[in-house]
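Write out the 3D structure for:
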Amino acid sequence: MTIALIVLHADPAEAGNPRADTAVRLAGAMLAEGKEVRLFLAGHGIRLLAPARQSTESTHELFQELLELGLTVQYCGTSLKNQGWTGSLPDGVTKSSMKGLSGWIGAADEVVCF
Protein backbone atom coordinates (compact mmCIF):
# COMPACT_ATOMS: atom_id res chain seq x y z
CA MET A 1 0.00 0.00 0.00
CA THR A 2 1.19 3.49 -0.84
CA ILE A 3 1.86 5.73 2.17
CA ALA A 4 1.12 9.41 1.53
CA LEU A 5 2.24 12.10 3.95
CA ILE A 6 0.74 15.58 4.00
CA VAL A 7 2.48 18.19 6.14
CA LEU A 8 0.24 21.14 6.98
CA HIS A 9 1.70 24.30 8.46
CA ALA A 10 -0.75 26.78 6.89
CA ASP A 11 -3.47 28.39 9.00
CA PRO A 12 -6.92 27.06 8.02
CA ALA A 13 -8.51 30.41 8.93
CA GLU A 14 -6.13 32.61 6.91
CA ALA A 15 -8.35 34.68 4.61
CA GLY A 16 -7.74 34.20 0.92
CA ASN A 17 -5.36 31.28 1.41
CA PRO A 18 -6.93 27.87 0.74
CA ARG A 19 -3.86 25.74 1.52
CA ALA A 20 -5.37 24.02 4.57
CA ASP A 21 -8.61 23.30 2.72
CA THR A 22 -6.63 21.92 -0.21
CA ALA A 23 -4.57 19.72 2.12
CA VAL A 24 -7.68 18.22 3.73
CA ARG A 25 -9.42 17.69 0.39
CA LEU A 26 -6.26 16.05 -1.01
CA ALA A 27 -6.16 13.73 2.02
CA GLY A 28 -9.72 12.68 1.22
CA ALA A 29 -8.89 12.03 -2.43
CA MET A 30 -5.85 9.96 -1.46
CA LEU A 31 -7.89 7.91 1.03
CA ALA A 32 -10.45 7.30 -1.71
CA GLU A 33 -7.63 5.93 -3.89
CA GLY A 34 -6.84 3.37 -1.19
CA LYS A 35 -3.67 5.02 0.08
CA GLU A 36 -2.63 5.12 3.71
CA VAL A 37 -2.75 8.83 4.43
CA ARG A 38 -0.88 10.53 7.25
CA LEU A 39 -1.39 14.19 8.12
CA PHE A 40 1.19 16.01 10.24
CA LEU A 41 0.17 19.36 11.73
CA ALA A 42 2.84 21.92 12.57
CA GLY A 43 3.02 25.67 13.04
CA HIS A 44 -0.29 27.36 12.25
CA GLY A 45 -1.61 24.07 10.85
CA ILE A 46 -2.34 23.15 14.47
CA ARG A 47 -5.34 25.47 14.21
CA LEU A 48 -7.10 22.79 12.16
CA LEU A 49 -7.77 21.17 15.54
CA ALA A 50 -9.60 24.26 16.85
CA PRO A 51 -13.37 24.64 16.59
CA ALA A 52 -14.45 25.78 13.15
CA ARG A 53 -15.10 29.37 12.30
CA GLN A 54 -17.85 30.03 9.79
CA SER A 55 -15.29 30.53 7.01
CA THR A 56 -13.63 27.16 7.69
CA GLU A 57 -16.63 25.06 8.69
CA SER A 58 -16.58 22.80 5.60
CA THR A 59 -12.85 22.13 6.02
CA HIS A 60 -13.34 21.11 9.65
CA GLU A 61 -16.34 18.92 8.82
CA LEU A 62 -14.35 17.10 6.14
CA PHE A 63 -11.40 16.74 8.53
CA GLN A 64 -13.67 15.07 11.11
CA GLU A 65 -15.12 12.74 8.46
CA LEU A 66 -11.63 11.74 7.31
CA LEU A 67 -10.59 10.94 10.88
CA GLU A 68 -13.51 8.52 11.01
CA LEU A 69 -12.44 7.01 7.67
CA GLY A 70 -8.92 6.24 8.85
CA LEU A 71 -6.87 9.40 8.36
CA THR A 72 -3.85 9.18 10.68
CA VAL A 73 -3.06 12.54 12.28
CA GLN A 74 -0.14 13.63 14.43
CA TYR A 75 0.75 17.10 15.61
CA CYS A 76 3.95 18.78 16.70
CA GLY A 77 3.85 19.20 20.47
CA THR A 78 6.06 22.29 20.34
CA SER A 79 3.78 23.92 17.77
CA LEU A 80 0.75 23.17 19.93
CA LYS A 81 2.46 24.83 22.89
CA ASN A 82 3.59 27.83 20.79
CA GLN A 83 0.04 28.35 19.53
CA GLY A 84 -1.18 28.53 23.14
CA TRP A 85 -3.51 25.58 22.72
CA THR A 86 -5.87 25.01 25.65
CA GLY A 87 -8.67 23.02 24.00
CA SER A 88 -9.31 19.33 23.78
CA LEU A 89 -8.11 17.29 20.82
CA PRO A 90 -10.23 15.16 18.50
CA ASP A 91 -10.10 11.41 19.00
CA GLY A 92 -7.46 9.79 16.82
CA VAL A 93 -5.06 12.74 16.88
CA THR A 94 -1.76 12.07 18.64
CA LYS A 95 1.18 14.11 19.82
CA SER A 96 4.49 13.82 18.00
CA SER A 97 7.63 15.80 17.27
CA MET A 98 10.06 16.66 14.50
CA LYS A 99 11.72 13.31 15.15
CA GLY A 100 8.36 11.63 14.58
CA LEU A 101 7.85 13.64 11.39
CA SER A 102 11.29 12.57 10.22
CA GLY A 103 10.28 8.94 10.66
CA TRP A 104 7.06 9.49 8.75
CA ILE A 105 8.97 11.17 5.90
CA GLY A 106 11.33 8.20 5.71
CA ALA A 107 8.43 5.75 5.50
CA ALA A 108 6.36 7.74 3.00
CA ASP A 109 6.15 7.03 -0.71
CA GLU A 110 4.68 10.49 -1.38
CA VAL A 111 5.17 13.74 0.58
CA VAL A 112 3.23 16.98 0.07
CA CYS A 113 3.59 20.17 2.12
CA PHE A 114 1.08 22.97 2.52
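The CA atoms of residues 97 and 111 lie 17 Å apart.
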